[in-house]
Sequence to fold (227 residues):
Amino acid sequence: QLVESGGGLIQPGGSLRLSCAASGLAVSFNYMSWVRRAPGKGLECVSIIFSDDSTFHAESVKGRLTISRDNSKNLVYLQMNSLRVEDTAIYFCARGYGSSAFDVWGQGTTVTVSP
Amino acid sequence: QSGLTQPPSASGSRGQSVTISCSGLSSESTNYDFVSWYQQHPGSAPKLLLYEVSKRPSGVPDRFSGTKSGNTAYLTISGLQADDEGDYFCGSRTGLRDFERIFGGGTTLAVL
Fold:
């Protein structure tokens, strides 16, 4: 399973670091992602880290959000800097499956960016 | 925000079938079956229903099925049950050599 933590209420321009703790699976497997759902909106995959440590970040977060992982601790992180109101969302950690799907999801952690 | 197009809502009566569409798939996505479907209940995490267009993970009942035609994928839910109410999302990737994973805007299903 995956368990996220680190969300909270933060002012615009602030920083947060989200963590995703994995049990029963290895975060070094295939690819791990952060997917968010903003209020009233759909799902958005914001960051991915692949087994070769290459990463992808959506244009909407590029330069502000950074995904990383610690294989020895079986953790995935999302460093969030220069946060904006539009980053307000529930952030889910998800394990990649096959070429394009996500098969294991955490329960999510809520990030609220507000003055 | 989302790269794929879904109808915002759908409905069906208990026991009947409903089909939800997902359009805007790239040609590579359809050629390589890069299509997945997810169910999300309020306050819960998304759940993978189908991957590679029509494959079901262990534990997903065969009432859920998937097909594709051209650049559109379809999710069909047969024998609708009250617990099927929720949001449904399709997912894909922009291309074989692209890293980006994209989702549809979601369809809220009501079971009457």
The mean pLDDT of chain A is 95. The CA atoms of residues 36 and 92 of chain A lie 6 Å apart. Chain A touches chain B through 28 residues (CB under 8 Å). The radius of gyration of chain A is 13 Å.
